[in-house]
Amino acid sequence: MTTPAEPTTETSSGHRYDAGLANRIECHWQAAWERDDVDRTLGPGDPGFDPTRPKFYCLDMFPYPSGAGLHVGHPEGYTASDIISRQRRMRGFNVLHPMGFDAFGLPAEQYAVQTGVHPRETTVSAIENFRRQLKRFGFGYDWSREFATIDPDYYRWTQWIWLKAYDSWFDPRLQQARPIAELVEGLDSGSTHIEDDDGNRIDWGSLDAAARRQAIDDRRLAYLGEQTVNWCPRLGTVLANEEVIDGRSERGGHPVVRKPLRQWMFRITDYAQRLLDDLQLIDWPESTRTQQREWIGRSEGASIRFPIEGSDESLEVFTTRPDTIFGATYMVVAPEHPLVDAVIADGGDP
Length: 350
Prior knowledge:
- By secondary structure, this protein is an alpha+beta fold.
- It folds into three domains: 132 residues, Rossmann fold (3-Layer(aba) Sandwich), CATH 3.40.50; 69 residues, no CATH class; 45 residues, no CATH class.
- Helix content is 36%, strand content 17%.
- The chain has ten helices and 13 strands.
- The strands form six sheets. It has a three-stranded antiparallel sheet. Strands 1-2 form a two-stranded parallel sheet. Strands 3-4 form a two-stranded parallel sheet.
- A hairpin with a 2-residue loop joins strand 9 and strand 10.
C-alpha cells in the first residue's frame, strides 16, 4: 500500500507564487525594461530606425497630478491604450506612446494658498509620485518623451496658438481662418465687407477709430465677450454643465450660481459645419459621433421676432419647428435676458 504524499504547504515550497514573489518578478523585469529602454521609440537619426514602417501615435488623456495619486479610473483607460499600442508594435508599427501631466489648474493654486508652498514644488512632487505609480503598472510608455503642461517648452505653444487665434478671423466664404490684418486691408480697400447682427452691411468708411477697433475685435477668433456661466464662488472658477450636479459643484459640493461674466472666449461655433463634416472622415463608433454632433449643437431652423405690446422692442426666438409656433400659449424668458430688467423697471410681473 502506497502512502499518499504529504500535500505541499506554503512553507515547504520555495517557489509558491504569492504577492511577494509577484512583486519581486515585476520589479526585476520593470527595472530591466527601463535599463534597456525597451519602450523607447526610435526616431530619425537613431540606429535601427526604419522610415518605411507604418507610424502609430497614441496619447492618453494625461492626468492631473493631484497629491492623492492615481485612482482606479486612471489604469482603466491606460490599460486599454496600452493593449492597442502593444498590439500595433507587435504588428510592426513604429509606435509613439508618451505620457504627460496636465499640471496647470485651480487645484494647484488653491493648495498653494492653503499651504503657503509654491505650486511648482507640490506639483513636481506629485508628478514624481504619479510617474512611480505608472511605472509600477508596467505600461509601455516612452518616458524619454515625458512632458508636463508647466514646462516652458510646452506652454509656449499654447500661448502661441492663442495669439494666432487672437490675430485671426473666420472667413465664412472660405470656411477657414485668415490673418486679421487681411480683414483690415480688405475693409480699407473695399474688397471686403462686414455685417451687423441683423445682416446689414456696415459702412466701414463712416466708422471712427474706436468703432473700427471694436468691429475688428468682435470678429477675432479669440475675443472678450459676456456670457452666462456656472460660477462657483467657493472654487473661484467657471464650471461646465457636466461639473454641476443639482446646483452644486461636482468637486466639493459647493453652491453654484448662474451669472453673466465677461471673459475670453473662442469662436468655435463658426466651425460648426466643418466639425460636423469632418466627423465622417474618422473611424469612430456611431455612438461617439452622435455625442459629438450633439456637443457641436448646430441646428437648422428660423429666428422669429415677436412684437412686445406697448413697446418698440421685440422678443427674438430661435426654433427648429416654426410650424408649431401657432400652438404656443406662453413664453419663458431666461433670467439673464436684458428684457427682464426692462419689464421689472416698468413695474411688470417679474
